[in-house]
Amino acid sequence: MVSFHSADRTLTLKGRTKLKPFIEGIFKREGKRLSLINYVFCSDDYLLQINRDFLQHDYYTDIITFSLSAPRAPIEAEVYISIDRVKDNAQTQDTTYQEELLRVIFHGALHLCGYKDKTGNQSKIMREKEDQYLKLFKKQGQ
C-alpha cells in the first residue's frame, strides 16, 4: 500500500490515483514485496531537523528514506520529501516541478528496492532507473 501525507506543506501531486499503483508496480518489477510505504511531503526546515536528529547530518536534502521492515520481510518504509528542495532542483535541473517530484518519489522507491547512490557508478544506475520509470509512467498516460 502506498500513501501520501503532508507534514507542514500543502502538496500539488497530479495523477495521484494512478501514481499509487504505479509505485507498487515498481516493487513488483524489481522483485520486491511491498507492505506499506508512506510518503511524507514537508519543508526544508522539517527535513533538515530529521536529517540532524536521525542521521546526524547538518544539511538540506531533497529526500530521506527510512526502511522500517525486518530483513526478508515485505518492505515497510517512510519516505520524507522536501517540497522546497524539489522546487529548487527543478529550476537548477531545467525540468518541471512535477517531473522532479516524480523523480524523487521514484528515487525513494528505488532505494527501498536496494539501489544506492553513494558512488558515481551507483548514481548512474540510479539515474537510469529513475529515467526508466519516469518514461514508463508518462507512457501510461500520467
UniProtKB/TrEMBL annotation:
Which Gene Ontology cellular component annotation is one that this UniProt entry carries? cytoplasm
Provide the alphabetized UniProt keywords: Cytoplasm, Endonuclease, Hydrolase, Metal-binding, Nuclease, Ribosome biogenesis, rRNA processing, Zinc
Bound cofactor: record note:
Binds 1 zinc ion.
Q: Where are the transmembrane segments?
A: none
* Highest taxon above the source species: Bacteria
Cofactor(s) recorded for this entry are:
Zn(2+)
Q: Which NCBIfam families match?
A: rRNA maturation RNase YbeY (TIGR00043)
* Name of the protein this chain belongs to: Endoribonuclease YbeY
Q: Which organism is it from?
A: Hydrobacter penzbergensis
Its gene?
Answer: ybeY
